[in-house]
């Protein structure tokens, strides 16, 4: 029964039950005697671990997994997250023993295949963005932003330009943008942005000798292409600042347009979004940071180098320390290596033409869904969108309902909710991103589910307000869940 509540694994516990039996120890017991440890660190009681059989564990987690909504079970139109289907071949390749079991401290000469893969991935990302060099270290988009902002800070510092303390961020930006700039030590200034993109007059007002960088997302987070990015770039460059590209939305333009050609100097990409790694529930991800040629010396080190020696059949690869102007390491070892393998597999499997098709279908699918919904749930901005669009949840207000209610009701119909209440500049925002991997039939089914909810809302708004009724957990008190979450099991 997938709908019965699942007890905690602790509640399945039976004293003495175990999932495995270890052989008798046949070497001297080397455990540190308790007398050698500080008394304050010693437990008084054994830990209350669940005592369960292997079958108990398998059934428990299998039942839990069946309660989850996943891209493998249904449409997941979560805007800005690019919840596309992740081909299983990527996982199979990442699980190859030579990748999965490589010791991260293996010497370079025993890891040539792996270094070759990383080097080719760096080259592919350069080709797709127009940047000159990449570091694969950052472990997520936000981490790539932080690395990029540290690079911007280093660039100005090395030039002795200490007055450049301001990073300008449009109001539509993802919350990680101002956070990353602030963490890198900058003062963050917000300027307005909307369907037409960033407000150029507001930008001009900050384009002075204190401007360090402008952070832009293109297409932006309301799903519109920033057609004036090149103008913004000129304004920023003439003032002596740098232009940062938040690449989370690359799925809309991959294979068609390159951030470097729009004038961007630094960028990060979310490999787990555009280049297909499962990333619901938070990770792991990868947020490589790329730069134009003269900024490469500020990238995190060590840097991967390729050597082609005359007379040698294959190139050699080695890590080299970054120069004194680098920002230093931002993560241990190779970054989230197995995410990088998945991205490499995806890029190689698609090829240039395949990636062009990805962005083409992503944009087509979003526009198709927007048009299907228009009569019942109009778009907030009435124009063609890129890979995602914002529907105007304010149409629910006359019925006494909110965007939230529609999202909850979608769960009852087997769909994941769209992103809601983001970006903050659009009231009652419902941001749909179907991605290129959904079929026409799946998109039409999602549109029918929304229509069904709107019809139910007109008939019986109370029923929609009580949704979801068919999920393992119904409406929770969100304020209490956020402020006083119960995250720890206390044995009774
Ligand atoms: C997802 C996202 C980020 C942050 O990326 P993470 O990998 O979640 O850290 C930044 N900007 C935009 C526009 C995003 O959608």
What would your notes on this structure say?
The chain has 492 residues and is of the alpha/beta class. The protein has three domains: 9-67, no CATH class; 90-347, 3-Layer(aba) Sandwich (Aspartate Aminotransferase, domain 2), CATH 3.40.640; 356-482, Aspartate Aminotransferase, domain 1. It contains 14 helices and 14 strands. The chain has helices at residues 54-67, 88-94, 97-100, 112-129, 141-158, 176-183, 200-206, 229-238, 271-274, 337-373, 403-412, 440-459, 461-465, 478-483; strands spanning 133-135, 166-170, 187-191, 193-194, 197-198, 211-217, 242-247, 266-269, 289-291, 303-307, 316-320, 389-392, 419-420, 429-432. Strands 1-9-8-7-6-2-3 form a seven-stranded mixed sheet, sandwiched between helices. A three-stranded antiparallel sheet has the order 12-14-13, with helices on one face. The radius of gyration is 26 Å and the shape is globular. The two termini are 27 Å apart. The model has no long low-confidence stretch (mean pLDDT 95). The protein binds pyridoxal-5'-phosphate. The site of pyridoxal-5'-phosphate (PLP) has 14 residues, from α5.
Question: Care to give the gist of this entry?
Answer:
With 492 residues, the chain is an alpha/beta fold.
Chain-wise SSE layout:
Blueprint: H1 54-67, H2 88-94, H3 97-100, H4 112-129, E1 133-135, H5 141-158, E2 166-170, H6 176-183, E3 187-191, E4 193-194, E5 197-198, H7 200-206, E6 211-217, H8 229-238, E7 242-247, E8 266-269, H9 271-274, E9 289-291, E10 303-307, E11 316-320, H10 337-373, E12 389-392, H11 403-412, E13 419-420, E14 429-432, H12 440-459, H13 461-465, H14 478-483
Parallel strand pairs: 2-3, 2-6, 6-7, 7-8
Antiparallel strand pairs: 1-9, 4-5, 8-9, 10-11, 12-14, 13-14
The structure holds pyridoxal-5'-phosphate (PLP).
Pyridoxal-5'-phosphate binds at residues 80, 140-142, 174, 176, 217, 221, 246, 248-249, 270, 285, 287.
